[in-house]
Design the sequence.
């Protein structure tokens, strides 16, 4: 079964949820972003920007305590919670009860951007998947790499989206990266079936695969998007769309397409190289407006 091309026409035919003018911020969804580390504190900021620019109404960020106050000043739109840190500078899994409290009132939870302590990420992600039943999850970077299909809790089918690049997928599937680069769609289908999750297999062309194997292909990316932090913004955009109530496969193809279109527009205005990840989210509202009037 060949993948369906993701185009502007496809997205217009499958629009994002609409919100009444009288709706408050609660109606547009609450996102919890769990992200960052002592080494990469800015990833939480990039993901948070993506979530808000995608239309989420309320943003909560949980990050390392050493970075929390700085992040709160840099992003006054968010409630920022400082978490106990591991010796390696990551978010300690002992924070799981507090993060469960925060996440229980959310519509979407994003875990992974900038989280560098893989053993801690693995334990924390596993705990939150068990504890939190309501939200849809987006799992990025180490939060995906450390997943074990055999340990996935029941009742999660189709309610998790993962966003790996080829190196992360290779690590997850325990194969060489060249095998992923040679057959990205097959790798995405394998992971989607194993996890019963939606997979965005990132690359110059990005494959999106649903748990049943249905697939889409977005080829509007550009070399300008191959820059530090770009994936963090994509994860945040995705989380924002999920929080608004968008069905996970649809949220994923919208996020991937808009991320690519944002890169294309920035490159057209400013040149192919030198794009900053923090510039990507600012393009999203106008792209949404053009494609669906929201």
Sequence:
């Amino acid at each position: 079964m060949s993948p369906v091309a993701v185009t502007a026409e496809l997205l217009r035919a499958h629009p994002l949820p609409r919100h009444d003018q009288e709706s408050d911020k609660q109606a547009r969804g609450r996102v919890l972003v769990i992200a960052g580390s002592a080494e990469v504190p800015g990833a939480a900021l990039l993901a948070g920007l993506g979530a808000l620019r995608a239309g989420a109404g309320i943003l909560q960020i949980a990050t390392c305590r050493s970075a929390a106050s700085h992040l709160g000043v840099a992003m006054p739109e968010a409630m920022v919670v400082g978490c106990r840190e591991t010796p390696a500078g990551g978010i300690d899994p002992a924070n799981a009860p507090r993060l469960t409290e925060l996440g229980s009132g959310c519509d979407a939870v994003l875990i992974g951007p900038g989280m560098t302590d893989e053993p801690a990420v693995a334990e924390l992600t596993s705990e939150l998947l068990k504890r939190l039943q309501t939200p849809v999850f987006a799992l990025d970077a180490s939060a995906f790499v450390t997943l074990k299909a055999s340990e996935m809790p029941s009742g999660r089918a189709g309610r998790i989206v993962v966003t790996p690049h080829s190196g992360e997928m290779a690590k997850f599937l325990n194969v060489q990266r060249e095998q992923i680069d040679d057959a990205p769609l097959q790798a995405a289908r394998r992971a989607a079936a194993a996890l019963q999750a939606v997979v965005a297999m990132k690359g110059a062309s990005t494959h999106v695969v649903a748990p049943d194997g249905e697939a889409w292909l977005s080829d509007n990316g550009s070399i300008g998007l191959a820059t530090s932090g770009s994936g963090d913004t994509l994860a945040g955009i995705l989380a924002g769309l999920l929080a608004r109530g968008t069905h996970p496969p649809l949220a994923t193809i919208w996020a991937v397409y808009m991320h690519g279109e944002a890169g294309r527009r920035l490159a057209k205005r400013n040149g192919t190289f030198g794009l900053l990840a923090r510039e990507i989210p600012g393009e999203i509202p106008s792209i949404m407006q053009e494609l669906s009037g929201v």
Q: What stands out?
A: The longest strand covers residues 58-64. The chain has a mean pLDDT of 95. The chain has twelve helices and ten strands.
